[in-house]
Automatic annotation (TrEMBL):
One of its GO terms (cellular component) is extracellular region. This is CALU protein. Belongs to the CREC family. SUPFAM superfamilies: EF-hand. One of its GO terms (molecular function) is calcium ion binding. Residues 68-103 form the EF-hand domain. The keyword Thylakoid does not apply. The keyword Secreted applies. It comes from the Eukaryota. It comes from Pelecanoides urinatrix. Residues 1-18 form the signal peptide.
Length: 138
């Protein structure tokens, strides 16, 4: 091997070693979190309650006695068991959680819509939007 070639290989090796690696981009689409609470089953089950019931329904369950909570959960489980075989499969549970989350989103959109539709005509004009969002700006 000649000296120029050896120097070229050596300089290319040094360049590769000293160059900064490119930033790794996450190409996986992650599902949104099912709750804004911390998911730590050793401490509490608030995250699971939000995911399973939806945030608003979970708040209601927090105020029930254990007996009432058990009775209501029994009714919900019968809704989750789509094929009515007496067992809840992983797929049925996933479908229920997706349903509960979508229901919460749709209810939130409906609440927001009503808050912006000030004249209750089913439409939101730019003026209504500005007034509901920013207040009456002169």
């Amino acid at each position: 091997m000649t000296v120029p070639r050896l120097l070229l290989c050596l300089s290319l090796s040094m360049l590769c070693i000293s160059s900064k690696p490119t930033e790794k981009k996450d190409r996986v689409h992650h599902d949104p979190q099912l709750s804004d609470k911390v998911h730590d089953d050793a401490q509490n089950f608030d995250y699971d309650h939000d995911a399973f019931l939806g945030a608003d329904e979970a708040k209601t369950f927090d105020q029930l006695t254990p007996e009432e909570s058990k009775e209501r959960l029994g009714k919900i489980v019968s809704k989750i068991d789509e094929d009515k075989d007496g067992f809840v499969t992983v797929e049925e549970l996933k479908d229920w959680i997706k349903f509960a989350q979508k229901r919460w989103i749709y209810e939130d959109v409906e609440r927001q819509w009503k808050g912006h539709d000030l004249n209750e005509d089913g439409l939101i004009s730019w003026e209504e939007y500005k007034n509901a969002t920013y207040g009456y700006i002169l």
